[in-house]
């Protein structure tokens, strides 16, 4: 039985949900790389990288092959690089919008009235206990 398309998409994005996997995919955009080169750049334990490569391989995002003594990895399709580029564009837009909002919050004048900074009503503080009703 096949899974619904939305579920398959969710699984694809779950696969991308680890920083090491994203970094591997970014590095492979330039072409096939041996595991030792990936290890040198990513600086994780070999067993951790191996696990992450296996996840990417099972998801069909990378392929592996032997080149003499080296195990080489490459993107399975240029669409993976396109997906990373789309993610970067989306992130750039989202962060730009957040920066614009932060700038607006920092530069906009406070609204008039008692809730503006510095104009908040102060609570009256006493050291005497509160009055009891009926006494």
Topology of helices and strands:
Layout: H1 5-15, H2 19-28, E1 33-34, H3 35-42, H4 46-58, E2 62-67, E3 70-75, H5 78-107
Antiparallel strand pairs: 1-3, 2-3
The best one-word shape is: elongated
Radius of gyration: 27 Å
| Secondary-structure class | mainly alpha
Strand order of the largest sheet: 1-3-2
Average residue-wise pLDDT: 85
Tell me the number of strands: 3
Beta strand %? 5-15%
Could you estimate the helical fraction of the residues in percent?
40-55%
Main sheet specs: 3 strands, antiparallel
Tally of individual helices: 5
- Helix and strand element order: HHEHHEEH
Task: Summarize this structure briefly.
This protein has 135 residues and is mainly alpha-helical. The chain has helices at 5-15, 19-28, 35-42, 46-58, 78-107, and strands at residues 33-34, 62-67, 70-75.
């Amino acid at each position: 039985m096949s899974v619904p398309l939305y579920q398959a998409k969710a699984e694809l994005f779950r696969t991308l949900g680890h920083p090491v996997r994203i970094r591997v995919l970014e590095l492979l955009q330039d072409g096939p790389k041996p595991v030792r080169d990936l290890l040198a750049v990513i600086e994780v334990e070999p067993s951790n990288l191996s696990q992450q490569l296996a996840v990417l391989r099972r998801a069909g995002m990378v392929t592996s092959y032997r080149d003499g003594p080296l195990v080489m990895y490459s993107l399975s399709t240029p669409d993976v690089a396109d997906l990373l580029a789309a993610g970067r564009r989306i992130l750039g837009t989202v962060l730009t919008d957040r920066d614009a909002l932060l700038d607006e919050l920092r530069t906009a004048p406070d609204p008039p009235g008692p809730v503006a900074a510095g104009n908040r009503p102060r609570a009256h503080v006493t050291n005497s206990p509160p009055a009891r009703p009926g006494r």
